[in-house]
Design a protein that fits this description.
single chain, alpha/beta, eight-stranded parallel beta barrel, two-stranded antiparallel ribbon, 16 helices, 10% strand, carbohydrate metabolism, glycosidase, polysaccharide degradation, Beta-amylase, hydrolase
Length: 532
């Protein structure tokens, strides 16, 4: 039977367990788990051991033959290290009830990734779920990954999600009930409830404590809870810096029904704390009228920068005037100060651990080929034609020895809508160049907004092995139905093999065929794992 068909059969067995949007497992998690792969049926364990022994014998023979053929070549051109691959776990792998969602499927999925040769997984930890020192479910998943032989990249998310439902801590909601201006606000007074406004970072708006004080306590609690995993399992800690974990304002709504974001977005500067800060800065430059609010001619979320006489107009737009330069400098300055402040707090709490820190920047590539780059400006990135807004961000990351995560590594210019004047390739190159200048290591990540096809995987490989980029690692989002579906899993399998192994010959393949057939047959015979 063809390898692709066997892989599809194996992963199809996982699909029912990984659809968790409307179904939540009710089984309480424990702080310790049996070894993930060893907790599978006994017959699977025996056959897996057998396959492992066969693979060792066969692989040693194959590797020895290839080594003899390539010794001379490798002395002249030593191969570059292949960046390790991580796979992101579902955002709601732990539900809003602090329960591991579909723990059996997670175990099976981790074993499949381990067999495939993936280096590790990314565990998203929600501030709102673990805020009361309720770490047991997250620790259970960390133990599953460790026992499956996988490393762990932990993401500390200080933002919430509407879909899936991952709210901020309850005490934040209580504080917002009496003071809704702790949330970002747009011109129409719409509040963004999944992230605190950067303007309140050092204000005692959370029951007498500042957000920075609360974040620092969260970091210390995480460090204490996961102390057993730092020496052997955890490789990186990602610190969330804003909406979706990215260093940006929530300037554009999330895409819906797989429709891309096409507008310029809106400035998020209308909570009372942002307006008060803007007023002070305007008075400092003796221009009090500049501090009354955001640009009066800024368009709405889904508008085009070329529509009418607006702030972002390509020629003679207000963004190029002294007022525009003042406002954009202030707006981006608030963002940069927040990033610097939060990374400093994280470094104080976690910096002496043997695991580096990471943080994510936004990848706002639409309208990048215009002079004003409006969608980047509303997100807080002062990155117009002739001005590199990523230089200052890279400088902050370098200051805190923080890796930079760039989402969108799979995107290419040819796949974008021409009318959006988008250029993900040039934007990716610009960000990497800024990182290289400041000595910041780069982690690639797919955008997770669309399925990665064959062209996308080719683009990822090109970026990973570009001599001018030298990316540190790759995180692929996410484990779930999309990853294990018949259309995507074979592509991902072939991609991982091309990354973790030398060129595959026909005599290499049976080992993995048998391994995946084991998963397929055992999951098919295990009635317990077929129930949700």
């Amino acid at each position: 039977m063809e390898l692709g068909l066997k892989v599809n059969q194996a992963t199809a067995k996982l699909e029912p367990f990984l659809i968790a949007q409307n179904k939540v497992a009710r089984k309480p998690a424990t702080e310790t788990n049996n070894a993930a792969c060893l907790s599978l049926p006994r017959s699977l364990r025996k056959r897996a051991i057998k396959v492992g022994r066969i693979r060792v014998v066969q692989d040693e023979a194959v590797v020895a033959e290839k080594r003899m053929k390539s010794t001379k070549l490798s002395k002249v051109n030593p191969p570059r290290p292949r960046p390790p691959i991580f796979v992101g776990l579902p955002l709601d792998v732990v539900s809003d009830l602090n329960i591991v969602n579909h723990d059996k499927a997670i175990e099976a999925g981790l074993c499949a990734l381990s067999l495939l040769g993936v280096h590790g997984v990314d565990l998203p930890i929600s501030w709102g779920i673990a805020t009361d020192n309720s770490w047991s479910s997250y620790l259970a998943i960390a133990a599953m990954a460790r026992d499956a032989g996988l490393r762990l990249r932990v993401s500390l998310n200080l933002h919430g999600h509407e879909h899936p439902n991952l709210p901020l801590p309850k005490y934040v909601s209580r504080a917002a009930h009496s003071d809704p201006d702790i949330f970002f606000t747009d011109l129409s007074s719409n509040r963004y409830h999944d992230c605190l406004s950067f303007s309140v970072d050092d204000l005692p708006v959370l029951g007498g404590r500042t957000p920075m004080e609360v974040y620092e306590e969260f970091f210390h609690n995480f460090r204490h809870a996961f102390s057993d995993f730092f020496d052997s399992t955890i490789t990186d800690i990602t610190v969330g810096l804003g909406p979706n974990g990215e260093l940006r304002y929530p300037s554009f709504p999330p895409p819906s029904n797989n429709r891309p974001i096409i507008g310029v977005g809106e400035f998020q500067c209308y909570d009372k704390y942002m307006l008060a800060d803007l007023k002070r800065h305007a008075e400092d430059v003796c221009q009090p009228f500049w501090g009354l609010g955001g640009p009066h001619d800024a368009p709405r979320y889904n508008a085009s920068p070329n529509l009418g006489n607006n702030f972002f107009k390509e020629r003679n737009g207000s963004w190029e005037t002294p007022y525009g330069q003042f406002f954009l400098s202030w707006y981006s300055g608030i963002l940069l100060s927040h990033g610097d402040r939060l990374l400093s707090v994280a470094s104080n709490a976690l910096g002496d651990l043997p695991t580096p820190m990471c943080a994510k920047v936004p990848f706002v590539h639409w309208w990048h080929n215009t002079r004003s780059r409006p969608s980047q400006l509303t997100a807080g990135l002062y990155n117009t034609h002739g001005r590199d807004g990523y230089e200052s961000i890279a400088s902050i990351f370098a200051k805190h020895s923080c890796k930079m995560i760039i989402p969108g590594i799979e995107l290419s210019d040819r796949d974008q809508h021409q009318e959006l004047q988008s250029s993900p390739e040039s934007l990716f190159s610009q960000i990497v160049t800024a990182c290289k200048k400041h000595g910041v290591r780069v982690v690639g990540e797919n955008s997770s907004l669309i399925r990665v096809g064959g062209n996308g995987f080719n683009r990822i490989k090109k970026n990973l092995f570009d001599n001018n980029m030298r990316l540190d690692s790759l995180t692929y989002h996410r484990m779930g139905v999309e990853l294990f579906c018949p259309e995507n899993w074979p592509l991902f399998t072939e991609f991982v093999r091309s990354m973790v192994q030398p060129k595959w010959d026909s005599d290499d393949k049976p080992n993995n065929e048998e391994a995946f057939s084991i998963i397929a047959s055992e999951l098919g015979n295990d009635q317990e794992m077929q129930r949700v």
